[in-house]
Design goal:
Layout: H1 2-10, H2 13-20, H3 22-30, H4 32-36, H5 42-55, H6 60-78, H7 85-95, E1 99-101, H8 108-111, H9 113-120, E2 126-130, H10 133-149, E3 154-157, H11 163-170, E4 174-178, H12 179-189, E5 205-209, H13 211-215, E6 223-228, H14 234-242, E7 252-255, E8 260-263, H15 265-275, H16 286-300, E9 308-311, E10 314-318, E11 325-326, H17 335-342, E12 351-357, H18 359-363, E13 368-373, H19 380-387, E14 391-393, E15 403-404, E16 408-410, H20 413-430, E17 434-437, H21 441-453, E18 459-461, H22 469-474, E19 482-485, H23 499-503, E20 507-511, H24 518-525, E21 535-542, H25 546-550, H26 554-563, H27 574-621, H28 624-648, H29 654-668, H30 673-678, H31 683-700, H32 705-735, H33 745-774, E22 776-781, H34 783-787, E23 793-798
Parallel strand pairs: 1-13, 1-14, 2-4, 2-5, 3-4, 5-13, 15-21, 16-21, 17-19, 17-20, 18-19, 20-21
Antiparallel strand pairs: 6-12, 7-8, 9-10, 10-11, 22-23
Length: 836
């Protein structure tokens, strides 16, 4: 009650914040006359002057009015687009590191130019993140005209570019690209061997377009770079053949809400009978158990043309939020292979994680993060808790006049689709353009077939027609046009109306079912009613829609029965709308919990990732003296741990002596363990011998000794980090069971993960020393040099042979023969070990 009275007296927090920006908007407006007097060639000069002022210590906040006024005038000249006052407000909010909620059609693409130019003055790069390559290219070319007019450079990052092109794009003042490309470039950079191979600069300022789609919807799926693991693909086909032999409810149960499948006791017995094993839950059969469940999930929870499509003999994921194809992305844990087996296409080998990061942790690395969308206020709490981002709703430039009609609810799908087709045919005859929004590809194709029977011309926009998107969307507001589209989230193209269609009532949005997220419904509605245009929207629902079925349509069904409604009669009731919205809120809450849990676990990995990647950068950029010092420290640590206790004890324990002797042979190749047991060297003596080996190695290859150290340090770090990621995946899979022992799984994951991380750091040091102490240099006469009877020789590394000092050494990374023993000391050939 008190808060309600307070809001009436003082306004909401959002309104009070926006009111504070009014003087800033007035100040920018006051500079417009000055900017109008400038010649075109003055604009780059002004920007260069502002850059110098920033270098001299002037703050961006202080420069904001002048820069925004300059960009506004540049937009008018270069694009024939003048920023509205509400767009200036949006730009100021973005500069302050917040999220702006702006309605569709309010010009978010143009708004971004204001803070992007301002923050680019620091010379550290400004990134604009979009949801797909098409929008990244479109916006970079379109807004690039404005940036070029100001004397700033624009880059774009899209799929298929090589490292040189990427490096050039990241070196520009302003860079556009997709969230996937930015994230994967970060991971790939942290797998490089040399600093000059890095494509990204340090992450400075970022605006995320469709921020809710990227930071919330896609946050459940981490970015993963993987390599092929050693596993048999035959098992997937074998498990696929088992599924038809199992009966639902008898042998297994399906939980659609949790997206999980469980075997019953009868199902376990049936699988044991088919697989001819005694105990499916025996640790030796854990892989079989895992793949049986994945095969069941592939058949019972994942639908073709909904969750994925089959294209060119491959299973391609369909993004559940945007309806877009995601080529190159694969489901993990063998699920993608199970789908390939189900669809009888080639089953690709399972992959092992080499590097991964969640979008939450990637975007939190930017010094300053901001975002824009048409629908963020419903997730304001999550943006605040996860990212520390405040959401501000920016008023529209013109009043919203779209008419949002109440939902119509039918008894079943057949009745609903008949009503939809009737309504579309009526609107088409009237000449009013219609956009029909569907949740899945197969539903869009079903409506298309029904409309074809009614001879209603229409266009279909879904993942299968992805290439024609811009053309289809651009025409969707023409007279009599009917467009069927899967989720419109992040489509990024406004549907413009002419005067004739405005007179007919504007664009009519017809939703065929409610999405589990209210934002996606709002985004669909938001395609109509832009910039004060007329429009209308209505959702058609059925009691057996997935959302209705999962979240209690029984009460509504009983109401319809009591009212004695026919199958083709619809119910329109506020209570029904409230029940649907409550169902959506429950799903949103459930999904938030999933994302929060993912982040809680990844926070542990993120601390480890930062430590490893920081160490990698140190090694990549270190000079020879620094690398030598690092390796010498490793030697000191191991010698101190192995020898000090034993050699200083009055009566050393026999087991300690045996352990020290074995480790001295294994790590340092010092001498046979049997000899060392009789006479362990002192720390000083051992240090002298081991460092002598390094001096000999250095004398044999002085010009590339630095690269030899760098190579083995990075090789050992990367190999052990890869194994650690796999071990952490396994730990996480089973950590939930700790709850049965009255332990907090998250705390146990942190504790055990930390212990595993410490062990990995020791293995990195140990493997580096083992490789270096076994390394031998082999001289090799180059073919060209031999023909000229020259004695110039190359240095080649291998596991045996004496080191000889060459007369000339080519500066290049050290080489190991494919059939040589691996320098890591594993005993395997290089091609089957580190060179695999």
């Amino acid at each position: 009650m008190l808060s309600s009275i307070s809001r009436k007296l003082f306004g909401t927090k959002n309104e009070r914040y926006l009111k504070k920006l009014d003087p800033l908007v007035d100040k920018i407006g006051g500079l417009e006359g000055e900017m109008r007097k400038l010649a075109d060639e003055d604009f780059p000069t002004r920007i260069a002057d502002y850059k110098q002022q920033v270098e001299g210590g002037r703050s961006l906040d202080d420069l904001l009015p002048e820069v925004f006024a300059l960009v506004r005038e540049a937009g008018r000249r270069a694009l024939n687009m003048r920023h509205f006052d509400v767009q200036l407000i949006g730009g100021a909010v973005l500069h302050q590191g917040k999220i702006t909620e702006m309605r569709t059609g309010e010009g978010k693409t143009l708004v971004a130019t204001l803070p992007v130019v301002l923050n680019a003055l620091e010379g550290k790069g400004a990134h604009v993140v979009t949801v797909n390559d098409y929008l990244a290219k479109r916006d970079a070319e379109w807004m690039g005209q404005l940036y070029s007019f100001l004397g700033l450079t624009t880059g774009v990052i899209v799929h298929g570019m090589d490292d040189e092109q990427r490096k050039a794009a990241y070196g520009a003042d302003i860079t556009y690209g997709t969230n996937n490309e930015f994230g994967f470039d970060y991971l790939r950079d942290n797998m490089k061997f040399y600093l000059d191979q890095l494509v990204q600069r340090p992450l400075h300022y970022c605006i995320v377009d469709e921020v809710d789609s990227i930071l919330i919807d896609e946050a459940r799926t981490p970015l993963i770079i993987s390599g092929q693991a050693e596993s048999s693909v035959g098992m997937y086909s074998q498990m696929n053949s088992i599924v038809p032999k199992l009966q639902a409810d008898t042998d297994f149960t399906v939980d659609e809400k949790a997206k999980s499948v469980m075997l019953t006791d009868e199902g376990v017995a049936r699988c044991e009978e088919i697989l001819q094993i005694d105990n499916l839950f025996d640790p030796a059969n854990i892989t079989l158990q895992h793949h049986v469940l994945q095969a069941l999930k592939a058949h019972k929870l994942f639908q073709r043309d909904d969750d994925y499509i089959v294209k060119d003999g491959q299973v391609v994921i369909v993004d559940e939020f945007t309806g877009r194809l995601m080529p190159g992305r694969r489901f993990s844990d063998g699920l993608h292979q199970a789908l390939e087996a189900k669809e009888h296409v080639k089953v690709e080998a399972e992959n092992q994680t080499l590097a991964s990061i969640t979008f939450q942790n990637f975007f939190r690395m930017y010094n300053k993060l901001s975002g824009m969308t048409g629908t963020a206020d419903t997730e304001a709490v999550e943006f605040s808790q996860i990212y520390g981002l405040e959401v501000l709703v920016i008023p529209t430039n013109m009043d919203m006049v779209r008419l949002d009609q109440p939902d119509l609810v039918y008894k079943n799908q057949e009745a609903k689709y008949r009503a939809i087709v009737e309504e579309v045919a009526r609107l088409h005859k009237k000449g009013q353009p219609v956009l029909v929004g569907t949740v899945t590809i197969d539903k869009s194709e079903l409506i298309s077939k029904m409309l074809t029977k009614r001879r209603v011309p229409h266009s279909v926009l879904n993942a299968k027609q992805h290439d024609k998107e811009a053309e289809i969307v651009a025409d969707a507001g023409l007279r009599g046009k009917v467009t069927i589209a899967t989720n419109m989230a992040g489509r990024g193209t406004d549907i413009k109306l002419d005067e004739e269609t405005k007179a007919l009532g504007g664009l009519y949005i017809l939703g065929t079912e409610r999405h589990e997220s209210r934002r996606i419904d709002n985004q669909l509605r938001g395609r109509s009613g832009r910039q004060g245009d007329p429009g209308e929207s209505r959702f058609y629902l059925a009691l057996d829609d997935e959302l209705m079925r999962l979240f209690g349509s029984d009460r509504i069904a009983s109401i319809m029965e009591r009212l004695g409604l026919d199958e083709d009669d619809a119910i329109e009731n506020k209570m029904v709308s409230r029940a649907i919205e409550n169902a959506q809120k429950r799903v949103e809450g459930h999904n938030f919990d999933i994302r929060k849990q993912l982040l809680d676990f990844d926070d542990t990995m993120n601390q480890q990732r930062k430590a490893i990647y920081s160490q990698r950068r140190d090694i990549m950029g270190a000079e020879e003296a620094e690398l030598e010092e690092m390796v010498h420290e490793f030697v000191e640590e191991f010698l101190d741990g192995l020898l000090t206790v034993v050699t200083t004890a009055k009566e050393p324990v026999e087991e300690d002596i045996e352990y020290a002797a074995a480790k001295m042979e294994e790590i340092f190749n010092y001498a046979p363990a049997q000899e060392l047991k009789e006479n362990l060297p002192s720390v000083d003596d051992a240090r002298g011998v081991i460092l002598g080996k390094f001096e000999s190695l250095k004398a044999g290859a002085p010009d590339i000794y630095n690269e030899i150290l760098r190579f083995f340090l990075l090789e050992s770090l990367d190999r052990n980090w890869k194994e650690h990621l796999l071990n952490m995946d396994h730990l996480r899979e089973g950590i939930g069971l700790r709850g049965y022992g009255q332990k907090d799984p998250k705390q146990e994951y942190k504790r055990e993960g930390f212990e595993m991380f410490q062990e990995m750091l020791e293995r990195i040091k140990e493997n580096t020393l083992r490789a270096l102490c076994r390394l031998r240099l082999k001289t090799e006469v180059a073919e060209d040099d031999f023909q000229h009877k020259d004695t110039t020789k190359d240095v080649k590394m291998q596991g045996g042979g004496e080191a000889k000092k060459p007369e000339t050494v080519r500066r290049e990374a050290p080489k190991v023969g494919r059939n040589d023993p691996c320098p890591c000391g594993s005993g395997k050939k290089y091609k089957k070990c580190c060179g695999a």
